[in-house]
Amino acid sequence: MDNFGFLFAANAFVWGGIIYFIYTLKQRNRELEKDVELLKEAISKESR
Amino acid sequence: MNQETAEGLEEESSILIWLTGLAFVAAMAAIFLFVPTEKTEGPIQRIMYLHIPSAWLSFFAFFIVFISSILFLWKKEREWDIYAYASAEIGVIFCSLVLITGPIWAKPIWGTWWVWDARLTSTLILWLIYVAYLMLRAQTDPGSMRARYAAVLGIVGFLNIPFIHFSVLWWRTFHPQPKVISSEGFGKGMDPSMLATLGISLGAFTLLYFLLMGQRVRQEKLKDEIDRLKREKLYSS
């Protein structure tokens, strides 16, 4: 019994899932950091 | 968050990234180069080194949800709600991987993708409970009531985990009985090289959990910071 296709499929799902999750996490964090910076800038401009 | 704290966190995070990366390289080397092929199942059995650690990670994540939810209900601190929410999301992702890799492993061995036996069904129920947890958080208005309802669901959901563990002992199931923590003693039901490989893989997945948790908690804290800044901007204008 070889079933390499099944072994490949399981690895593809696990690695694909982990990499996709890390990628979306990183991207979302970057967007949020940018929003924080923009808001801080806007507040400091208004207070001047 | 001041500059020094942020830099300290960045440094910790990069150490964890390296450690996790190295642990996964070691795990992959052990899975594909070191451990011998199992006699009856053949190469497909190597799915075990991803399937069991994914299950371990999801159970550990739901345990953190359970503890954090209790602490939230007790102390009413937002911090614990953040930990519970972050951990639930990670738990659901890895529980999904368990429910995907399991049938992929089952098809060539059992001849079917799925059977409604106690272990598989109770794992599916666990997944559904925590998907409901995430839906509850997404569909209700932010505030202490949402956090409270979610905490109750987070605690109730975890009670299913001991049932999942003992299901293969209480009922006759398709799913094999535990090999690592068995009645014969710790790791007695397994070849030492298989046990070592599984241990490395479990270690790598545990490090991955802490890495993901760090990022996910940071995300929630950034969202809180944005809400605070928006309020500040509103009052200042």
Description:
The complex is a heterodimer of chains A (48) and B (237). Chain A has 48 residues and is an all-alpha fold. Chain A has one helix and no strands. The model of chain A has no long low-confidence stretch (mean pLDDT 91). Chain B contains seven helices and two strands. The two termini of chain B are 24 Å apart. In chain B, helix 2 (48-75) packs across helix 7 and helix 3 (78-110) runs antiparallel to helix 7. The mean pLDDT of chain B is 90. With 237 residues, chain B is an all-alpha fold. Chain B has one domain (13-34, 47-176, 189-236). A two-stranded antiparallel sheet of chain B has the order 1-2. Chain B has helices spanning 3-34, 48-75, 78-110, 118-139, 144-158, 160-170, 192-236; strands at 181-182, 185-186. Chain B is 78% helix and 2% strand. The A-B interface holds A 1-4, 6-7, 9-11, 13-14, 17-18, 21-22, 25-26, 28-29, 32-33, 35-36, 39-40, 42-43, 46-47 and B 41-44, 46-47, 50-51, 54, 93, 96-97, 100-101, 104-105, 107-108, 208, 212, 215-216, 218-219, 222-223, 225-226, 229-230, 232-233, 236-237.
List the helices and strands and how they pair.
The complex is a heterodimer of chains A (48) and B (237).
Chain A: H1 4-47
Chain B: H1 3-34, H2 48-75, H3 78-110, H4 118-139, H5 144-158, H6 160-170, E1 181-182, E2 185-186, H7 192-236
Antiparallel strand pairs in B: 1-2
Helix pairs in contact in B: 1-7, 2-3, 2-5, 2-7, 3-4, 3-5, 3-7, 4-5, 4-6
How many individual β-strands of chain A? 0
SSE pattern of chain B, N- to C-terminal: HHHHHHEEH
Sheet with the most strands, sense and barrel status of chain B: 2 strands, antiparallel
| Regions with little confidence, pLDDT below 50 for 5+ residues of chain A | none
Distance, first to last CA of chain A: 74 Å
Strand order, sheet with most strands of chain B: 1-2
- What structural category do the secondary elements of chain A indicate? mainly alpha
